[in-house]
Design goal:
By secondary structure, this protein is an alpha/beta fold. Helix content is 42%, strand content 18%. The longest helix has 18 residues. The structure holds manganese (II) ion (MN).
């Protein structure tokens, strides 16, 4: 197993682990650059507070598409916090069977998020796109010019042509281990050039054996990507770290 220091978990719900503060501290101790995403803007202040005392953890301001049906009005709170952060998410669209009914509201919220980010400039946004790759890319193309912000597609499962379109729009992709267990998704991942790849766990929503993933488990993603790209894991880890540096310094 490769060392965890300097690895990247660009999408993890640290506030959904049994002990939030301990989860932040564990990521910090492991030296894994971790983006702590949130599902409601109400969770932002505590996430922000805990991340501020760390070198490796950053918090992102989100309003999850699966919560929009009940929480669309929290977009006002999201607006109020936006100036406090460079990182936004989890946001996006979800047209899975349980959330399809709120898709119109989700589109209103996601469009608003993209427009506010474009106005503010310099935001980095981690985006959910279950069964909505085309709609997500349409909204990104319409409302977030590439020079006004960066999109990282989290657990993207679009087609190869949608992947190509996302690359043309300047998107990055954060890849998790579960994606690489699926042959169709693996062949999509192979379309992504090494310089647009990031890694994630989406913990605690993914698992390693019987337990929930934590940020250090991105080592498994790095190793799987190494096998896929036929490169040493260390080289993949370095590319991902370089990509993160490019993303945040642009
Ligand atoms: Mn997530």
């Amino acid at each position: 197993m490769i060392a965890t220091a300097g690895l990247v978990d660009f999408h993890c719900h640290l506030d959904l682990y049994p002990d939030h503060a301990a989860a932040v501290q564990d990521a910090e101790t492991a030296g894994v650059f971790t983006l702590a995403v949130t599902t409601t803007p109400r969770a932002w202040p505590r996430n922000h507070e805990l991340a501020q005392c760390t070198k490796h953890v950053r918090a992102a301001l989100g309003l999850h598409p699966q919560l929009v049906a009940e929480r669309e009005n929290e977009i006002e709170l999201w607006d109020r916090h936006l100036a406090e952060t460079r990182y936004v998410g989890e946001v996006g669209l979800d047209a899975g069977p349980r959330f399809f009914k709120s898709l119109d509201a989700q589109k209103r919220v996601f469009q608003h998020v993209l427009q506010r980010c474009a106005q503010a400039g310099d935001k980095i946004i981690t985006v959910h796109s279950i069964r909505t790759a085309k709609a997500v890319l349409d909204l990104v193309e319409a409302h977030l010019p590439p020079e006004r912000g960066k999109i990282v597609l989290h657990w993207f499962t679009g087609t190869k042509s949608e992947t190509k379109r996302a690359l043309e729009l300047g998107c990055y992709f954060s890849i998790n281990a579960a994606m690489l267990h699926n042959e169709r998704h693996t062949s999509m991942v192979q379309e992504i050039p090494l310089d647009r790849l990031l890694t994630e766990t989406d913990g605690p929503f993914t698992s390693v054996g019987e337990r929930c993933s934590n940020p250090s488990d991105v080592a498994l993603v790095v190793e799987a990507l190494g096998r896929l790209y036929q490169l040493p894991a260390k080289q993949v880890a370095k590319s991902v770290r370089d990509n993160l540096r490019d993303l945040v310094s642009e």
